[in-house]
Design goal:
The protein starts with a helix and ends in a 5-residue tail after the last helix. By secondary structure, the protein is an alpha/beta fold. The chain has a six-stranded mixed β-sheet with strand order 3-2-1-4-6-5, sandwiched between helices. The chain is built from eleven helices and six strands. Helix content is 48%, strand content 16%.
Length: 215
């Protein structure tokens, strides 16, 4: 990449990724107050960050990625009850092992979700025919709504999911594992829903670049 772009490439740590993601989220949701959690579900890992009025307090990077779980489910993409239950159990076990009580039981007042899984769920919950970041931003996804969406998505083939409006290309085989992760995180942190942020890591990087340095 460095040779092709002619630019230096900086590899950031998990802690730096959490800080920049939080910066992006806060830029779009300036009214956040008290303690809250930021959930970032990715292809190879999932980050959960505890933050408050003073900024980032603690973060953890979990070995939970939608790509690995998607690849573990061959076939046409439909999840029968047995396989869906097994996916829930696998995610639940990993969350129990890897999310410390210092985060899960910290008394966070709300959960903020960013990245493709939760923004896609928001678009589906809103019934959008085309993705609209202005409507997705700040949308409230209840746990009951995520459960309904999961039941709907799990019953479809990958081909049928790919035809859903507002579903990004290449996400048809990933949205079910991502939705299970989202749902099980809500259960692990004992919150009944999440607020969706269309802004995340990329916007955090932009904020960092565009913020003037102090003299």
């Amino acid at each position: 990449l460095a040779r092709a772009a002619g630019r230096a490439v900086e590899v950031i740590s998990g802690d730096e990724e959490a800080r920049l993601t939080l910066l992006g989220v806060r830029s779009g949701l300036p009214g956040l107050a008290g303690r809250y959690l930021v959930l970032d579900i990715g292809g190879g890992s999932t980050e959960l960050t505890l933050a408050g009025d003073t900024g980032l307090e603690r973060s953890v990077s979990l070995r939970l990625g939608v790509v690995a779980y998607g690849e573990d489910h061959p076939g046409d993409g439909r999840y029968e009850a047995r396989r869906l239950d097994a996916l829930h159990a696998a995610v639940r076990r990993r969350l129990a092992r890897e999310v410390p009580d210092a985060i899960a039981a910290a008394g966070a007042r709300q959960l903020i979700g960013t990245a493709g899984t939760v923004t896609t769920l928001a678009a589906l919950d809103l019934g959008l025919t085309a993705y609209d970041p202005a409507r997705v931003q700040g949308h409230r996804l209840t746990r009951a709504a995520v459960e309904r969406l999961l039941a709907r998505l799990a019953a479809l083939t990958n081909a049928a999911r790919a035809e859903l409006p507002a579903l990004e290309a290449g996400r048809a085989d990933l949205i079910v594992p991502g939705t299970v992760i989202c749902l099980e995180v809500m259960r692990r942190v004992a919150l009944e829903g999440l607020t969706v942020s269309d802004r995340g890591l990329r916007e955090g990087i932009l904020c960092e670049i565009l913020t003037p340095s102090p003299p």
